[in-house]
Amino acid sequence: MSEASDRSQYLPSTLLYESVAQSCGMLMNLEYLQSQGLVVESLNHGCESVTAIPPVPHSVFAECAITLMQLARVGDEVLMDARISLQRAKTYVFQVEASVSQMVIAKGRIILAYPDYVS
């Protein structure tokens, strides 16, 4: 097997980093919606009582410090775990972890923030 075809069996690490960052952004936006009075649980199962979702501001990617411990193979089911460890004003610090078959393949910290022009 050639080196190029061997590498093609692995998920590019940039996709893993982007997936973890997107998970953090989703969690941050759910927290924002909750602070605006939306009952986040009402979004579950397409509840018909939710008629309008308030606009969510765009967040800014501030910092990423993730250690990749092992590559995931194409087709692996990757479990993303993102937890808010600190929230101050418009800045959120997340502890993140990605695992495959209960083995941690990446972990670290991501910081996201809403820009100053967001009220």
Architecture overview:
The chain is globular. It is 24% helix and 34% strand. The protein is built from 2 helices and 4 strands. The chain has a single domain (3-113), classed as Thiol Ester Dehydrase, Chain A (Roll), CATH 3.10.129.10.
Structural features:
alpha+beta, four-stranded antiparallel sheet, globular
Write the layout of secondary structure elements.
Layout: H1 3-7, H2 13-35, E1 60-68, E2 78-88, E3 91-100, E4 103-113
Antiparallel strand pairs: 1-4, 2-3, 3-4
Strands, total number: 4
Count of runs of 4 or more consecutive helical residues: 2
Fourth CATH level, the homologous superfamily: Hotdog Thioesterase
* Structural domain count: 1
- The helix/strand series, from N terminus to C terminus, equals HHEEEE
Overall pLDDT level? 85
Strand residue content:
25-35%
Unreliable spans are none
Which strands sit side by side, in order, in the main sheet?
A: 1-4-3-2
CATH class membership = Alpha Beta
What CATH architecture do you see?
Answer: Roll
Give the helix proportion (percent range).
10-25%
Distance between the terminal alpha carbons, to the nearest Å? Answer: 56 Å
Structural classification: alpha+beta
Describe the sheet with the most strands: 4 strands, antiparallel
Tell me the CATH topology. Answer: Thiol Ester Dehydrase, Chain A
